[in-house]
Amino acid sequence: MINPERCSGCRTCEIVCSLIQDGECNPAASRIAIIRYEDLGIYLPMTCQHCESAVCMDICPAGAIYRDESIGAILIDVNKCIGCKLCLMACPIGGVQLHPVSKRVVKCDLCGGEPKCVEFCPGEALEFLSPTEVSIRRKTRRIKDLGMYLAMLTGQQPAERTPQKLDLAKKVGAKRRPTE
Amino acid sequence: MLSRKVAYIDLSSGKTEVKSIPEKVRRLFIGGRGLNMYLLYNHLKPGADPLGPENVLVFGAGLLTGTAAPCAARFNVSAKSPVTGFLGDSNCGGFWGPELRFAGFDHLVIKGKAPAPVYLLVTNDHIEIKDASHLWGKDTIETQKALREELGIANLQIVCIGQAGEKLVRYACVRHGYKNSAGRTGMGAVMGSKNLKAIAVRGTKGIEVAFPGRLLELRRAAYAEASKTKLFSILKEYGTPFLMDAHQGLGNLPVRNNQRNQMEEGLWEDLSMESLKRRSLKMNGCFGCFVHCRHSYRVPFGQHKGAYAEGPEYFAMNALGPRIGNYNLDVVLVAHDLCNRAGLDTTDTGGNIAWAMELYQRGIIDEGVTDGLPLEWGDAQVILKLIEKIIDRDGFGRLLGEGGIRAYKEIGEDSLYYFMHVKGLSIEAEERGLKGCALNMATASRGADHLRSRPVPEGMFLPPEVLAKLYHKPVPPDPHSYQGKPWMVTLTERRMCASDLLGICKFLTKTFMTTHMFGITEYATLLGAATGWDISPQELDECTQRVITLERMFNIREGLTRADDTLPERYFEERTPNLGPLGGTNIDREKFAEMLDEYYELHGWNRDGMPATTTLSRLGLDREPSHLI
């Protein structure tokens, strides 16, 4: 689960992913990427979501993509993959990519069930949770961060925050309280 | 990872040459600041005009920059300084250093001067010199936006200068992203003097790590340790501006050009750490960092009202706040953004404005000199106007942009006393109450600068056992004592150098602001896990000594003498007011001289501060310049 409002853009996930997968630190090869909106200071981690109805798996003509039920991951069998890149084209979020060095088609494999990006993210922007946990955690987090996130998205100056918004922010326990 | 190259770019001829770095050179100087110093010493002829084409500009990433080592984002920018005439060197975070390494380069050596404005485009193993005439005149934010749009390359990382660098304001800086700067010693002016507007980098080559599992284990352990320290919980919530509150309490702030050491009670709350936190949108972080100490905000008023901005750091708040008599956070934030956009060192900007304000206060200058501006302390309009004039090199602004040690000649001999500097670089804080920190200011190789060797624990009132463990021998816990300080400064100097060789953030360096985290042993272990070297802490420590002495040799070659290792006259002549535990004191000349003698001795230098021949041969510097790369 990705919590973009907590991402500080440090790219630790990219460094650790590439190091674990390839033995080299190379954000360009990382299976998780931080999409940066420099002018807003907003950073969105994006990676394969191991879809319940995986388009990449459906479209693969070589039958190389399959689901590992034990960890819920969608994986590529490198021995069957022919590199046609249909999966790249089909994935709606760019979760499959071409490795810049090996030129193979690669994607997130959840590190065998203990994703390293999650382990090393210093900001709790990435979490690996069961389906029920996701739901409740998400709702709780979202509400808590709502105040801060609202302020960022709307570019509000502290003076422009209305009493109603301040109130809401206080009530939901927003992490960053706007000025009183 | 050791296969990354050094590129030599001659902007006059347009030719580029790429060479490998022999491993034996790396073992001697490691990387980052160390190899930068080596390259500078070997490629620059002494006596060059810092703003002329003969100056050599070196960019260099730390040897661990771009790897999974904790907070390994940093790179150095080095040249002869237009501010001091001695060593110019500035360390910078963000994402540019790692990207340079992903493109296959560790160091760029830039010589000559382009016939017209250019920028460099660095991609995998490839460097192109491109026309930048359409970028000239843009500020640092606009330049980066324009380059990103024009080139359409994802994750492009850019260093660039703004109008201040183009116009050769001596303390113009190099900027990267919204936050980061190679801020001090005028490296932006050097870029401007070479007609070099920007260096844009994008690389997709991985950096091989010898023992990935070991490196990640070290990272895990570092994070676990950091999470238990007070420093990190403060930094990730308040950033360095927590020091404003700390120093206000201690009484070592440079209020109104160091005339006072504490802001007036009840008037300074707007500059407090809580006040800034309320204004801050979100804390962001550099490449591979787990601290995330940088603030972000929206510019509160003026031409760029509502624009996104990042920062400020504590020292910038000092320079644009109490130093110039301004206690208003909004004004700090606007001034800070102006300096960032134009590419101006905030410390020297504040330092020169403070100088001017005190001269005005004392009637040494008047409106006739200041283009009609009444330089009242803390006057927001005046401050912002002066910053504009410095950027534009307009009238009195031109004079201030030269820096006090040149400008005083046009104003009058008696004005120099009021310019707070060491070697021409503006003082950042107040050190009369911290004798060790004072020694750091006097001896730092690039001038008044805390990032070479400031022994911050000196002012933390730590128990003697903690200090003894930190410095490997008992040292007095009293900041007012002159004893033991040369050793504290010397040890700190070596440790901070180590972090600069590796490209790791100094917040992780033991002896800087924390008694935990990385000392020389931990750095050597980290280096070994990443490079595969069998390198002992002693060998790494010797590398730091080598770099420090080489920097000394560089400065001596440019005319440095013992007389330059000194402090502002005010520090000797005047006592700070009796405010706070660090107030009511000055620096005793004789005791300072004794500290300096001991500092030199600890370095293996003679009483004039010259490296002894035995020291040179012990460190293998007796053959410099050796032209190995």
3D architecture notes:
- The complex is a heterodimer of chains A (180) and B (629).
- With 180 residues, chain A is an alpha+beta fold.
- Helix content of chain A is 33%, strand content 16%.
- Residues 174-180 of chain A have low confidence and may be disordered.
- Chain B is α+β, with helices and mostly antiparallel strands and 629 residues long.
- Helix content of chain B is 40%, strand content 12%.
- A six-stranded mixed beta sheet of chain B has the order 2-1-6-3-4-5, sandwiched between helices. A six-stranded mixed beta sheet of chain B has the order 8-7-12-9-10-11.
- The longest helix of chain B has 21 residues, at 537-557.
- The chains are: A alpha+beta (180), B alpha+beta (629).
- The A-B interface holds A 8-12, 15-16, 18-20, 22-29, 36, 38-41, 43, 100-101, 116, 120, 122-123, 148, 151-152, 155-158, 176-179 and B 66-68, 95, 98, 102, 144-145, 148, 155, 177-178, 203-209, 212, 215-216, 219-220, 223, 277-292, 296, 298, 300, 306, 308, 310.
Mean pLDDT across the residues of chain B is 97
Largest sheet of chain A: 2 strands, antiparallel
Low-confidence stretches of chain B: none
- Residue fraction in strands of chain A: 15-25%
Q: What spatial form of chain B do the alpha-carbon principal axes imply?
A: globular
Task: Tell me the series of helices and strands of chain A, N- to C-terminal.
Answer: HEEEHEEHEEHHH
Helix content of chain B: 25-40%
- Rg over C-alpha atoms of chain B, rounded to the nearest angstrom: 23 Å
- Looking across the biggest beta sheet of chain A, what order are the strands in? 2-3
Highlighted features:
heterodimer; A: 180 residues; alpha+beta; two-stranded antiparallel sheet; 6 helices; disordered C terminus; B: 629 residues; six-stranded mixed beta sheet; 40% helix
Chart the SSEs and their pairings:
The complex is a heterodimer of chains A (180) and B (629).
Chain A: H1 12-22, E1 24-25, E2 32-37, E3 42-47, H2 55-59, E4 65-68, E5 73-76, H3 86-90, E6 96-98, E7 105-107, H4 116-120, H5 131-154, H6 163-171
Antiparallel strand pairs in A: 2-3, 4-5, 6-7
Helix pairs in contact in A: 5-6
Chain B: E1 5-10, E2 15-19, H1 23-29, H2 32-43, E3 57-61, E4 75-80, E5 87-92, H3 96-102, E6 105-111, E7 118-123, E8 126-131, H4 140-151, E9 157-160, H5 163-166, E10 174-176, E11 180-182, H6 187-193, E12 196-201, E13 207-208, H7 212-227, H8 230-238, H9 242-250, H10 273-279, E14 296-298, E15 308-310, H11 314-320, H12 329-342, H13 346-361, H14 380-392, H15 396-402, H16 404-411, E16 421-422, E17 425-426, H17 435-443, H18 464-471, H19 485-502, H20 520-531, H21 537-557, H22 569-573, H23 589-603, H24 613-618
Parallel strand pairs in B: 1-6, 7-12
Antiparallel strand pairs in B: 1-2, 3-4, 3-6, 4-5, 7-8, 9-10, 9-12, 10-11, 14-15, 16-17
Helix pairs in contact in B: 2-19, 2-21, 11-13, 12-14, 14-15, 15-16, 17-19, 19-21, 19-23, 20-21
